[in-house]
């Protein structure tokens, strides 16, 4: 195992160890790692942020990879939720004084998201804002529920195709297409609240033939956090 450390940025794509600290940007997505280490300063975070750090680490671990943390009690508490089993003696010996657990071989939602992202592009809020202001803007497909669209607002010009039926709304083979009717080579950016379910929805669109599909990193929450504008939603098409 390499002892190379990094935060998983572009220069660390081949790193074997992902360090998740209190300062880690949990919206950044990277390659997968052999080991993820939760550093001690994560314990200073509020409970929900701390739990999010653990789930972030799990997103970057393939089946059989290791999760390492100093706080034994906390990792024991989260083991079932994170689909972990205690690592063997050799792994624990390599990390003295740490709690060492191994991801099981079960396919999890993190694996499905990882596979989906291998098929699509990803854009930041700034990237999307620039493209929307350009001469050939993408079609923004908002897959959130009407409740979340009302609560958090929508990106101007986006269309609504709920995640459960996004392929039905856009596939020309279906008789109940969205009025926007994009062609297979039109650029599309799929958005959700946090940038996870949008990856799955975008991969569905690629699978049925759309060739230029991305999703928004961090979703609408990241868009709003970047100070970019939202507007009120229009749900009139739901009567189709």
TrEMBL record:
Annotated GO MF terms: thiosulfate-cyanide sulfurtransferase activity
Pfam families in alphabetical order: Rhodanese (PF00581)
SUPFAM superfamilies in the cross-refs: Rhodanese/Cell cycle control phosphatase
Family matches, as InterPro entries: Rhodanese-like_dom (IPR001763), Rhodanese-like_dom_sf (IPR036873)
Domain Rhodanese: 134-232
PANTHER family: THIOSULFATE SULFURTRANSFERASE RDL2, MITOCHONDRIAL-RELATED (PTHR44086), THIOSULFATE SULFURTRANSFERASE_RHODANESE-LIKE DOMAIN-CONTAINING PROTEIN 3 (PTHR44086:SF10)
Name this protein carries in UniProt: Unannotated protein
Organism: freshwater metagenome
Lineage of the species this protein comes from: unclassified sequences, metagenomes, ecological metagenomes
